Fold this sequence. Notes:
Elements: H1 15-34, H2 39-42, H3 54-73, H4 89-94, H5 99-119, E1 125-127, E2 133-135, H6 136-162
Antiparallel strand pairs: 1-2
Helix pairs in contact: 1-5, 1-6, 3-5, 3-6
Amino acid sequence: MTAATRTDPPYTGSELAQAEGFLDYLRATVVMKAADLSEDDAHRSVLPSELMTIAGLLSHLRWVEAYWFRTVLCGEPDKAPYSKERPDGEFEDAAHLPTAQLIAEYEAECANSRAVTARLPIDHAVPFRNGGDVNVRWVVLHMIEETGRHAGHLDIIRELLDGTTGE
């Protein structure tokens, strides 16, 4: 997925197809906001939080995708670099990783997430916190919210870095 492949979500289709269309649009927006930046700019903090960088947000979104689709829906171990001792580990680690690697890892994780939703029904539920359940629909909708929120952060950071505005 690159900025060149960003397409509008479908105007008609199944609930999952339309929700995933919006999520994929936002995922492509994240990549677009990170593209064509120098390594210095991708890792530069322009907001009060030193962790809030283009690189940091790419890493965070990669691990959020992994958590919800791999760990929660598929039951795989959580391999994210954050812990109680390092609650911002994914942001901290991003400071030492090339932007191209962060983009590639994010795109690969998004592809895995798409594969998960392709094989699970939208109502497929798994045990979750406090004895409750969560289903694919909730995870996809949550990822629209999470990715959209951080795409907005990326808009602000990118404009402060180099004046780039737009979609």
